[in-house]
Amino acid sequence: MPAQRQAESETCSEIATLLHDQFSRLTRQLRNMDLPQGMTPERLSALAVIDKRGPISVTALADKEMVRPATMSRMVSALVEEGLVKRSEDKSDGRGVLVTATSKGRRAYLRAQQQRLHHFTSALSSLTPDQLSAMRSLAAALERLTVLLLDDSAIPGG
To answer: Where are the domains positioned within the chain?
Structure first.
């Protein structure tokens, strides 16, 4: 491997380690943020997908959330019991069920989202203008990275 490619590979490896470490810390902090009564990070995530993509099948929701359909089915049952989502038949698949957020579910999701965004906004307000600009650039780069990670064929050797 030529010296320049070796250096690029080492740089990418170092950045991957730094990002992984920081994302792990950030994820832990987000999971420990106060959420409205009865809302867990997993429920909030599922409710966000249902709200944005619903009506959605339990299987498709499980795929989006990267959990087993049985796990998602239990979560959906709990959300239905709390009146946050409702089930309806899938007219294109006689055996299928679609899940949609109720107005109560949408309000709960928006309240939790606003609470988290408030925490982010407060933290960001402590950064310098240069750091804020870097965060904006980082957000764009992370969006691209997410697309690449979802499409293994776009990654060399993937």
So the answer is: 29-126
| Residue found under tokens 């491997």 | 1
- In Å, what is the CA distance from 151 to each residue of 45, 76, 145, 157? 22, 28, 10, 12
Identify the CATH number of the domain defined by range 29-126. 1.10.10.10
Give start and end residues of each alpha helix (H) in the chain.
3-32, 41-53, 58-65, 69-81, 103-124, 129-150
Angle of helix 103-124 versus helix 41-53 axis, rounded to 10: 110
pLDDT in tens, 58-107: 999 999 999 999 999 999 999 999 999 999 988 887 778 899 999 999 99
- Gyration radius (Cα) of the chain, Å: 20
Residue of 158, 42, 54, 31 lying closest to 106 (CA atoms): 54
Residue 73 burial by Cβ neighbours in a 10 Å radius (0-12, 13-18, 19+)? middle
pTM of the predicted model as reported, rounded to 2 decimal places: 0.69
